[in-house]
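Q: Can someone sanity-check these two? First one:
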Amino acid sequence: MQAQHNIHATDAQKVHISRLLLQANLAYGESNSPVSLVQRVKARYECRGYLGEILAQEPGNTTALGLLGRVELDEGHLEKAHTLFTDSLSQDPAQPQQFTNLGYWAIRSERPALAEQYFIQALEMDRQSAAAFCGVAHAKRLQGQFDVAYLHYRKLLEMGLEWPSVYSGMLTCAEQLDVQKADSKLARDAILLLRHKGLPHQEIGRFVGAIIRQQYDLENPNAQVALDAASEDELLILALEKTLMPDPAVEELVTLLRRAIIAEVAQTVELRDELQPLALALAIYADRTGYALTAEDDEERLVSAINESICAQLAMGEEQDGMIGSLIISAMYGAMFHQRFAVQLGRWNLVDWPVALQSVMAASYYNRASEEAIKQNFDEKAEELCLEKTDVPQAWPSWSKLAYRTESSLKTMMATELGMNTDQLPDTLRIMVCGAQSGQRAMELAHYLKDVEVIAVDESLANIAKATRLAGEMGIDNIVFWPWSIAQRFVADDHKVHWIEIGRLPSAKMTDVSLAALVSSATGNGAVVHMHTAVDEQTDGDKQIRHLVAQHNLKPTRTALRQLRKMVLTNRQDPMWQSLVSEIDFYGLGGCRDRWFCEQDSRQLKELMALVSNEVEWKLVKARDTDGHSLATKPVQQQIQAEALGSEVQSLMGQGLSVYFQRRR
């Protein structure tokens, strides 16, 4: 009777363990679902509780050991995770799931080649493992095998596995592909990526531009482009709506299509319905470039006449329907906010316009009006008052979506990735991003790190206004955008920050700004400074244009910027200009203005490097190369010290490293 009772007890125990495993898996699934970080941490805690109960009853339960290892991996405890995965495999070596887990452990440990081996072992045991197949894609991407990784991501999407990490990985690989011929599959991929609302489409401009260049045979001087065919090209229209394509041949195509539309309008005195989607896309694209696209004199004259007609129509109280075509044509050549009729447009709200027109009206009029209102809050606005409307600087870079990241906490990252003790840190940490430009990186920090408040600083009032507007639209309320003057007053009032990130360096005209002094004053014991050791915008073409600017005392007007761009594009086969023409900044007037009239002051970086080279005050806690791989810190520290002592031979300037320093006291 006693033996029979034990058997029943064991069966009951197995049922109970099975139930606990089910609950643990559900909790773990919730801990990795798109809910708030607080909910995810709570679910992870619950998962730990269930697993602890299982392992108390059955210490060798392979599934529980593996799942606990994934919890430890998610929390950044790499050694604990590895031990649990290997303990599980020692109990049962035929577990594809544990080899998959080890693969992701190896990725987190920055060992992608080892990760690939583990994923392949998992696939040998289970050919249907999507997690392992996706892991191979990630490992290939991290090893720089972008074409192979891209094909893996495509296969996963074809299988219906539309995970955010798959889309994100495919998008990263796409921009690295060398597209040499027209390929219908690549075109379909591009359309799929551009249709996806949650992706940072600004990051695939080269990829999409290369496909369009091949499809339209733009390298052939005799290629013919049919306006009607272009107006039905979904890829072209999506690309114009979502990206900026850094390709001179594509820019010529865009300019040609715009000219063809206005030429037809000049003949027929109307904008055909069939051409409206293309015309609207061209208007959005022109706005994204800051109206960098050049126009012939006859185009300018016709657009001027159309703008005069709109003024007259508005003065006569004409309804919207009679002006739609004229407004679209006007928006293809200039911002409606800059036109004489801008004030009259204010009688309508954005939602009062036809849905198809709203994105153009927002970009060309309403967003600019909102940003202008934001600028009025800052003293720096006075500098713009003497400028022509079309010469007022435009925000740069132009972006639309934040890059995909998993929500985390800065304290966790400081502990796991930098090996810092975070016990004494407050619940909410303060980050300062110096040189935030139009704010994408700063907003990603604010959005994905749930224990921070962010102060983003920039010298461009246009950048501050655009970023403030976008943060409001996205509901990101733990970030502010300030000019340097306010940031300096904030620090002078003895406020401290826990993390400083250096983006674009201040220009030489910011004579009252010292990054080294700001960092020294704003940081206390344990604060981190993250910077890069390279200064961009230093091509031969940039240097030549800056020489011309100084020689002829040029001002950053729209006319001057367009003329400089035209000179470069006309002579783009000259080796002097080839590097410049491949830079995405060149394809927006805001980017050109920054490069040529607001050059980054490399002395600011040298002074900051000299500050952190003091080992008594600062400790180098992490260094990454241009591929994102971690480097041994001691040799890098020695280079920094040698440079501070005047040794140019070992200079880090220009090497493109990403370095993190912690203040010791």
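And here is the second, same format, sequence then tokens:
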Amino acid sequence: MDLYLPKDELLFVPLGGSGEIGMNLNLYGYDDQWLMVDMGVSFGEEGLPGVDVVMPDPSFIEERKDKLLGLVLTHAHEDHLGAVPYLWPRLKCPIYATPFAAEFLKAKLAETDFADQVPIHVIELGGRFKKGPFDIEFVTMTHSILEPNALAIRTPKGLVVHTGDWKFDPDPQIGEASDVKKLEALGDEGVMALICDSTNVFSEGQTGSEGEVAKNLSKLFAETPQGRIAVACFATNVARLQSIVEAAHENNRCVGLAGRSLNRVTEAARAVGYLTSYPNLLTDEDAMEVPKDQVLLICTGSQGEPRAAMSRIAKGDHPTVQLDPGDTVVFSAREIPGNEKSIGYIQNLLIRRGIRVITARDEPIHVSGHPGRQDLARMYQLTRPKILVPVHGETRHLCEQAALGAECQIPEQVIPHDGTVIRLSPGSAHVIGVAESGVLCLDGGRLLKRDSDTIRNRNRIVWNGVMFVTVVLNQFGEMVGEPMITAPSLFDEDGDDVRLDHFAAEIGNRVDQLDDDEVLDDAAVILAIRQALRRPVRQRLGKRPLIEVHLVRVKEKN
């Protein structure tokens, strides 16, 4: 695309995660060389029927892939690395990650046919390396997953701190606490720009500690001596897994895992030295052989995902796990906006079966992995940036964090959206252009643009139905027989065949009106048939269906 990009300036270009929560993809550019930070997905969107996964369109950097030095992953959440199996073949760049994220990514890539082609470089916690004009240092943070990192990116134009997802947790249960001393040292060094997580900017105070959740879970389990206990949580929250396991053991319960992603995460964690104190986690099948009051199941499906373990358990069609009246299900996770209905559906199914349901609204059994307003203010005080660029949020989150930054006397704030090209240095920070951006939808095994004809037509079919019309014309352009019309998504009542006859007559009248040249032109005939149907269909049904016309031409024998 025709976009002027100055070489002697430090540029920041978000292609995903600025304007929505999820599918993070960020670019830093200097001297016609580019560094990518994260490559994530999001899960479905309203108005995208049949699409479970969406991700940023990387076309902008794909056109410059020979200038892409590498992809740096801040952590292993799907919204930060989940797009790698889909987009890496278009970029083919080296990847840099700390041990857990690297191990987790390798497990995901094992399901592709190009896993052995991806160069994954493991950087130890707190490690530092150089790529072109970028000097990248990992800074250990805390979040709701193992080994989350901020990045200190040193460039010829200044130091940028890219926070990734983070919070300040003095008692994270597993892994190290946030490296506050390093953040303060970076502030002393001089931070030009802070690129900062905005997810919880509307939450007052500090985000709670995982250590408190562990205590509360143990207390809750002690108050539930009878029946099986099943806990639904995010599979990637290894600290929560450990908290649940320890709380179960404190209450004389062994632990089983139900859900493929739980097994994948625990295997990745053990491979890099975590969870090694818990070698006896049971399979879901083995757990069902243990007396009810001596077992606890950790399950996937905290968001009501239809194919996850908790959903299948609630519906009674899980191949192994069964819960009975008097058992207890604990939802130790937050409700991601948009998932409320699916979560409520699963919880209602459980309650109808006499199963006790406990959520974070009932007991303090969940804390966020993102910073509240007090945590954000502390980050500003530690790093003392000249520029604040809020990311990882909807527009309202970004604007609110920019306002908070101004209150905290950060001199400059720039609010991005996907595709904005922001000059960080030299001079004042501001938007200098717009890069190509967009959303790709995973449709089966292919990637489609969100605004593609396929997606647009599918939406139209969902809301207005589809009508198939077959018309046969002879060599003179005369109709042979009546048009064949089928509309399975529009007609299923008695008497609908009368309506179809009416529409067939409309087609016949319109074709008869075509002149000699038009009737021999396939495109003109198809357009005429669609025009003949649109108004009567809209008048009789109140719908604007997708009309698919199949035109057949035959030669009649003398």
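A (reply): Looked at the second one. The chain has a mean pLDDT of 92. The two ends are 58 Å apart (CA to CA).
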